[in-house]
Amino acid sequence: MAKSRQQKEDAVAALEEKFKNSKAVVFTNFDGLSVAEADEMRNALRAAGVDYMVAKRTLIGLALKKAELSDVSIDELTGGIGVAFGTEDEIAPAKTLATFGKKSEALKLVGGIFDGKYIDAAQVQQLAALPSKEELLVKLMWLVQYPTTGFVNVLAGSMRKFVYALQAIKDSKA
Q1: What is residue 3's predicted lDDT score, i.e. its pLDDT?
Q2: What is the structure's pLDDT at 43?
Q3: What's the rounded Cα separation, in Å, for the pair 161 and 69?
Q4: Of 61, 112, 133, 148, which sits 20 to 30 A from 27 (CA to CA)?
Q5: Cβ neighbours of residue 125 under 8 Å, at least 6 residues apart?
Q6: Between the CA of residue 172 and those of 166, 168, 169, what are the distances in Å?
Q7: Low-confidence ranges of the chain (pLDDT < 70)
Q8: Alpha-carbon distance 132 to 128, whole Å?
């Protein structure tokens, strides 16, 4: 059933708002994805805090222009286009879709928008390979804590050696 003009305008407005408020956007080609796989993908995206919408290429193009992302060309993207919007975490859309893409070969990452610029499928894959924000914070805390831990171990080692020396002196006099 064809959408009315008002429904199309509402869809463009919703897409425009999501493009403006998103830190990262990933475009997917979902041709060949079964309904069960699509539901599983949407549930995984929802759990990761990612919004996912499917719209016609022309509506996506209009929303991109209205969101002042005119350097992004929707004409390069082929097949049925789905758009994943990451509003909280920049890496979540790419990581979640790449993980799901390993399970289902029908889903293909075809491009995205990161930091207001278009990125191709290879760059989306690189983005998906990055560690999550939580992993990076853990690594940062480890790096901050490591020098202190090393210093404590050095001090403890000196004290340990002193105790061993005293024990050796005691054993030699006994």
Answers
A1: 76
A2: 93
A3: 65
A4: 133
A5: 94, 98, 109
A6: 10, 6, 5
A7: 1
A8: 9
Read off the DSSP letter of residue 33.
-
Q: What pLDDT is attached to residue 47?
A: 92
**Cα distance from N-terminal residue to C-terminal residue, the chain:** 99
Strands of the sheet containing 50-54, edge to edge, are: 50-54, 81-86, 24-29, 108-114, 117-120
**β-sheet bridge partners, residue 27:** 83, 111
> What is the rounded CA–CA span in Å between residue 24 and residue 173?
73
Distance CA 109, CA 77 (A): 10
pLDDT of residue 153: 80
| Residue 82 bridge partners (DSSP) | 28, 54
Rounded-to-10 torsion of CA 91, 81, 22, 75: 110
Amino acid (1-letter code) at residue 66: K
Type of residue at 166: L
Instruction: Provide DSSP, 113-153.
Output: EETTEEEEHHHHHHHHHSPPHHHHHHHHHHHHHHHHHHHHH
The helix (run of H) or strand (run of E) holding residue 41 is helix 35-47
d(CA 44, CA 103): 12
Determine the residue type at 47: A
pLDDT at 5: 83
Q: 0.85 cut: is pTM over it?
A: no
